[in-house]
Amino acid sequence: MRKNNKNDIGFFITLGFIVLVFSIGFMLSNPQPSKAKDNNVSYSIEVLKEDGNWLYKIFKNDILYIKQDYLPAVHGKQRFASKKDAKQVAQLVVQKLQRQKIPLITKEELITNKIAFQPL
Q1: Contact partners, residue 20, CB within 8 Å, separation at least 6
Q2: SS3 for 29?
Q3: CA distance readout (Å), 67 to 1, 17, 48, 75, 110
Q4: What are the CA-CA distances from residue 90 to residues 3, 71, 109 (Å)?
Q5: C-beta of residue 103 within 8 angstroms of C-beta of residue 91
Q6: Residue 7 carries which DSSP code?
Q7: Other Cβ atoms closer than 10 A to 86
Q8: Where does residue 51 rank: exposed (0-12), middle (13-18), buried (19+ CB within 10 A)?
Q9: Cα gap 44→72, rounded to integer Å
Q10: Longest dimension (CA), the chain
Q11: How far apart are the C-alpha atoms of 115 and 58, rounded to whole Å?
């Protein structure tokens, strides 16, 4: 009878291992998306001058999502030099949002897009 217990334990360990391997294989062959894509999301941009300074607002489905008063990625609180600069940066942010990327703007992107700012 002791032999049967050892065989039973070995059988259940083997069975458990086989189930585990098949489960992992199934999960790898049918990956779940990490984020649900929502095709009904729309973004719009508003560039305006407040208190003599340019800024932009990004709306997601007509709800204020981002308000950017200052240039991103630069030292201190630097304002946008022009309406064009504010609009260009807003468009870069929206492009990243549409690709479901973090809308982080780098100093290199400001330079590439000829956005005016004061270097350190």
Answers
A1: none
A2: helix
A3: 75, 53, 11, 18, 18
A4: 73, 10, 12
A5: no
A6: H
A7: 26
A8: exposed
A9: 19
A10: 91
A11: 18
Total Cβ atoms within 10 A of residue 54: 20
**Scanning the structure block, which residue is given the tokens 């259940």?**
12
Residue 32: pLDDT band with limits 50, 70, 90: very low
Nearest to 113 by CA among 97, 82, 92: 92
Tokens linked to 1? 């009878």
Query: pLDDT digit string (tens) for 48-102?
Result: 999 999 999 999 999 999 999 999 999 999 999 999 999 999 999 999 999 999 9
Domains of the chain by residue range? 1-32, 43-112
Q: Identify the residue whose tokens are 């000829």.
A: 114
